[in-house]
User: Fold this.
Amino acid sequence: DDATGDEQTTPTDDQWIREGRHQGTRYRFDRAGNLVERRDGERDLRLVWDANQRLVESHAGDKITRYGYDPLGRRLFKETEGQRTSFYWDGDALLGETTAAVAAETEQAAESSPDTTREYLYYPETFEPLALIEGGDAPAVYHYHNDPNGCPTRLTDARGEVKWAASYTAWGGIAELYVDEVTQPIRLQGQYADTETGLYYNRYRYFDAEAGQFVSADPLGLAAGSNVYEFAVNAAGWIDPLGLNCSSDAAKLRKAMEEAGELTPQFKNAAHHIVMSNSKNSRMKKLRDLFKKHGISINDADNGIFLPKGSKYAIGTNLPAHSKIHTNAYKEAVYDRLKNKKSEKGIRQALSDIKNDIILGNFP
Assistant:
């Protein structure tokens, strides 16, 4: 058994498999850390992954669903039982989807029109849903009503009538569905519920709300923390719209800043790493190596600044939204300021200068 008492075995005959049981459900993972089978007594699920650790096929009983992705790893479609749902993106945010019958020939598929068309709108610079626009023969606009963490609890039409309503478990699973007149797949910010698997697509990974864990390891590896399946510290006060966990570092940075005497702003804020803690950007990696060379923790208070979580919280300040600051221009500017520093003192002074410029609205 592991530390939590869950049963685990690791056979090593012809392949590496990790097995475990959690609250009556049995899980099996492959050697890459991907969930390949889940059995709960009601529905057996089998998953197939490609060499890039992306889910490409699911088997739920006799139902087979296939998935496809673009070069950036964003899901482009899922296809099951003669229906294909295609997804459209604005950066990392899901912009819309269409569903149409899969034609036998490519030419016919190109000519077929979608049966349903849906568009999602979000609050500025966030993944928090604002509205759902349905096209087709009966176009309609629905408005989201969300919990403080951005998770939808109700969907209302133009007349204010509730068309969808639900309550949630601790990790975003549906506890009770009160009204279900409109299909509403959005869950925690950045998550899309797949009915065929019971999993939530979360940009880079898939999330199991029943277990409160992702079903594959974090692409960031151990840089994401010791638990590579963790969603966040909790789902009430944290979000992970990309499926890339940096919440443990953010919590450590916040604590360090508070202990150093930094005043926590009144607006809804995030603890931002000036040199980013888990970014795959080559410049950020080089700066993290520079920090290590001079004995500076990535979660050092000098490497932090409190920023508004979104643009709507930045009103009355010169501060950029935390959701908006991680641009290539920002990373390049930070790198240029720090790359030639030869001492711990020089690095800390440069971090202080960057922080002051951000506060004044002059960076990057």
About this structure: The longest strand covers residues 93-101. The chain has a mean pLDDT of 87. The radius of gyration is 22 Å. Residues 60 and 197 are 7 Å apart (CA to CA).
